[in-house]
């Protein structure tokens, strides 16, 4: 997979991700917790957006809905212009695997596999042959500064290196959208800065659209846009 300008997006005229009127409520007995209230958001290819808000505001819920891991109670999630509302679970899973990558605070790498194997595995699951998958995985790891570490297992890598492998794995199948939940939250400040710079380079260099939930306001201010989730509403600052 060549890391070229616009390599991830079909068309810059179509939003990579669009949420319209999204509502999500959790019920516990007779009480209801309204987490998302009429969320509106559009993201274009090549754009990195910071998602901030207090703990418990619903940032993870918003990412789960955007990533088709949860269904909204009402509203629509468009992925590359396609309405996912009426899709069944199998169709949603197929869209998620093809077009959405996820990065979490903890890398969740498979400890018995090398960095190269961890990154090539999603491609093998998608149907690519081993040689092609490993070639693409090697290109990604080199792009992220891990060309000399691709034969190392997670236990032999630093925290920042493990997170970069997780980023490579998330984009291995050339998704249109990257959703990240506190991707630098478990790293020391210097390593977090390096990983954040990698994310910026990746998004701006490929046309991938990224929504990054973070408590680091300094990082959020360096993204293309910043949106704040507060009392279920999304506010753009």
Automatic annotation (TrEMBL):
Residues 17-237 form the ABC transporter domain. SMART domains: AAA. It comes from the Bacteria. Keywords: ATP-binding, Cell inner membrane, Cell membrane, Membrane, Nucleotide-binding, Translocase, Transport. GO terms for molecular function: ATP binding; ATP hydrolysis activity; transmembrane transporter activity. One of its GO terms (cellular component) is plasma membrane. GO terms for biological process: lipoprotein localization to outer membrane; protein localization to outer membrane. InterPro entries: AAA+_ATPase (IPR003593), ABC_transporter-like_ATP-bd (IPR003439), ABC_transporter-like_CS (IPR017871), ABC_transpr_LolD-like (IPR015854), MacB-like_ATP-bd (IPR017911), P-loop_NTPase (IPR027417). Belongs to the ABC transporter superfamily. Macrolide exporter (TC 3.A.1.122) family. PANTHER family: IMPORT ATP-BINDING PROTEIN, LIPOPROTEIN-RELEASING SYSTEM ATP-BINDING PROTEIN LOLD. This is ABC transporter ATP-binding protein. It comes from Microbaculum marinisediminis.
